[in-house]
Write a structure and sequence with these properties.
The protein is 8% helix and 50% strand. The protein folds into 2 domains: 30 residues; 197 residues, Sandwich (Jelly Rolls). The chain has a 7-stranded antiparallel beta sheet with strand order 1-5-14-7-8-9-10, with no helix packed on it. Strands 2-15-6-11-12-13 form a 6-stranded antiparallel beta sheet, with no helix packed on it. The chain is mainly beta and 230 residues long. A hairpin with a 2-residue loop joins strand 12 and strand 13. Bound molecules: 2-acetamido-2-deoxy-beta-D-glucopyranose (4 copies). One 2-acetamido-2-deoxy-beta-D-glucopyranose binds next to strand 6 and strand 15.
Length: 230
């Protein structure tokens, strides 16, 4: 079903490409995959399922262990235009570090020799899905918060919002927005650059059991919303 939709989207994309020879498509409609072989698709008004293979992660615990191997669907926007991004993520989380959610990265910051990024979503830890946030300036800082809603169904709505030079990460539980993290370095610099915004899924741990070591983790995303200034 997903494949069929991707093919239809591809056909639409080709049609749109020919139709748009007179009108450049807006930068925000350009989406790319990293670490994933699938047709390009925009998550806006779409339901997307990423099948994350095992041995994938986004995690930098030391300078010598810099891992960005997870499937990532992203678009590039001007950093100064970023306002907020949110998504509802759902999966049958069951194995240590199974995870998925939002990622933003700052690939054009020349003054750093390392990539700065923030990931926020659900991560399976201590036998249950948790809300996990990792802020990575030089190295990764990880925090966990219990899911107060829907931990049985494994879905969560996560939001990253710009507040001055900070990025704030929230979980949306019904009508309530609960703070998970303040990242003070996010928008302190680089306002003439581009940043990447998107969704990811990762499966650091292989399934046990004969024949299951290459099982993938299916993570579904819906209601993706990216708010920009222009
Ligand atoms: C994508 O496909 C290419 C060519 O078949 C292959 O070399 C590469 O390993 C694949 N990448 C992933 C992430 O599966
Ligand atoms: C990334 O992390 C995963 C999970 O720990 C590991 O299996 C994989 O080998 C790592 N890949 C790289 C390139 O470091
Ligand atoms: C979470 O899952 C439950 C059960 O499938 C569903 O009723 C609820 O609408 C979901 N919440 C969101 C935000 O998708
Ligand atoms: C996600 O952000 C949009 C604004 O871009 C907002 O209208 C919407 O209410 C947000 N979703 C949730 C669940 O808060």
């Amino acid at each position: 079903m997903f494949q069929v939709r991707l093919m239809l989207r591809q056909v639409f994309f080709w049609t749109a490409t020919f139709a748009s020879t007179l009108h450049a498509t807006s930068a925000e409609s350009q989406w790319k995959w990293l670490n994933y072989n699938a047709s390009t698709i925009s998550p806006i008004r779409e339901v997307i399922t990423i099948h994350a293979p095992p041995d994938t992660d986004i995690w930098r615990p030391s300078i010598n262990n810099d891992n960005f191997t997870a499937p990532y669907l992203y678009t590039s926007i001007e950093t100064s235009n970023f306002q907020s991004v949110n998504v509802t993520v759902q999966a049958n989380w069951k194995t240590l570090y199974d995870q998925g959610g939002l990622v933003i990265t700052f690939p054009e910051r020349q003054e750093h020799t390392y990539l700065q990024w923030i990931k926020a979503g659900v991560e399976f830890t201590d036998g249950a899905p948790y809300l996990g946030v990792v802020g990575t300036d030089r190295l990764s800082d990880w925090s966990l918060s219990p899911m107060l809603q829907d931990s049985n169904t494994g879905n969560a709505t996560i939001e990253i919002v710009r507040d001055g030079s900070d990025a704030w990460v929230y979980v949306i539980e019904g009508t309530r927005r609960r703070s998970l993290r303040q990242v003070t370095w996010a928008f302190n610099e680089g306002n003439s650059e581009h940043m990447h915004v998107g969704i990811y899924a990762a499966k650091p741990t292989r399934e046990s059991g004969v024949g299951h070591e290459f099982d993938t983790l299916a993570v579904t995303f819906k209601l993706f919303s990216l708010e920009t200034k222009s």
